TrEMBL record:
The keyword Signal applies. This is CD200 molecule. GO terms for biological process: heterotypic cell-cell adhesion; negative regulation of neuroinflammatory response. GO terms for molecular function: cell-cell adhesion mediator activity. Its main location: membrane. It comes from the Eukaryota. Keywords: Disulfide bond, Glycoprotein, Immunoglobulin domain, Membrane, Signal, Transmembrane, Transmembrane helix. Residues 77-164 form the Ig-like domain. The keyword RNA-binding does not apply. Gene3D superfamilies: Immunoglobulins. It comes from Myotis myotis (Greater mouse-eared bat). It is a single-pass type I membrane protein. The chain crosses the membrane at residues 167-193. Pfam families: ig.
Length: 237
């Protein structure tokens, strides 16, 4: 029975064997029987199962014997570590969810950094601790490891994250790239126009027609030479 609210949860007798009350079926059972050592096992434990349980023995000739066992729920940390790298800052986020609440610290070389911590308590009894490390000079951390240390129930575990070289936009660099692209496009357009203009002039010359782009020009035809003095008049010699 649970000590805080006494009620029979599971009983055992030679006559009836193990009897689990309906409210606790598929939830708990006696997995070891013995006067010196009796074990109850819980499945799918929740925060409501935490507490102290009293074990009562009624033995012939020895009377009643009892003992109390207390159940405390622990949840091992689930840790997530990631980073966001840009030109002028590096933010590394380490989050750990556990019961009881974990503690987070950082192991990283260098200076010019600070961190912020947020604590969130969940309805299931676990606690999330979210720590964000802000590094002001990210380029010095590229190729190195940032280590998040999680302390839980007296044990410290290290979780490392290598910082890879990312790609970020620099405003001067971006302007230079855009200017270069525009210049290349303009040069391509100019070369394309000049090439086609030369081809058109060669085609007109081969057909014996005067260049329409010039006011005065000479072009040869099989029967003679036309001297063009303007767009309106021409004489044949």
């Amino acid at each position: 029975m649970k000590a805080s609210s006494p009620e029979n949860m599971v009983t055992f007798s030679k006559e009836h064997g193990v009897v689990v009350q309906p409210a606790y079926k598929d939830k708990m059972n006696i997995t070891e029987l013995g006067l010196q050592n009796t074990t109850i096992t819980f499945w799918n434990t929740t925060l409501d199962d935490e507490g102290c349980y009293k074990c009562l023995f009624n033995t012939f000739g020895s009377g009643k014997m009892s003992g109390i066992a207390c159940l405390t729920l622990f949840v091992q940390p689930k840790v997530f570590l990631h980073y966001k790298l840009s030109e002028d800052h590096l933010n590394v986020t380490c989050s750990a969810n556990a019961r009881p609440a974990p503690a987070i610290s950082w192991k990283v070389a260098g200076s010019g950094m600070d961190n912020s911590t947020e604590i969130i308590t969940h309805p299931n009894g676990t606690t999330s601790v979210i720590s964000v490390l802000h590094i002001k000079d990210p380029k010095n951390q590229v190729g190195k490891e940032v280590i998040c240390q999680v302390l839980h129930l007296g044990t410290v575990k290290d979780f490392s994250q290598p910082v890879n070289k990312g790609f970020w936009f620099s405003v001067p660099l971006l302007l230079s790239i855009v200017s270069l692209v525009i210049l290349l496009i303009l040069i391509s357009i100019l070369l394309y126009w000049k090439r086609h203009r030369t081809q058109d002039r060669a085609r007109l010359h081969s057909e014996g027609r005067c260049d329409e782009l010039e006011a005065i020009s000479l072009c040869s035809i099989p029967d003679g030479i036309i001297a063009v003095t303007s767009h309106e008049t021409a004489t044949i010699r």
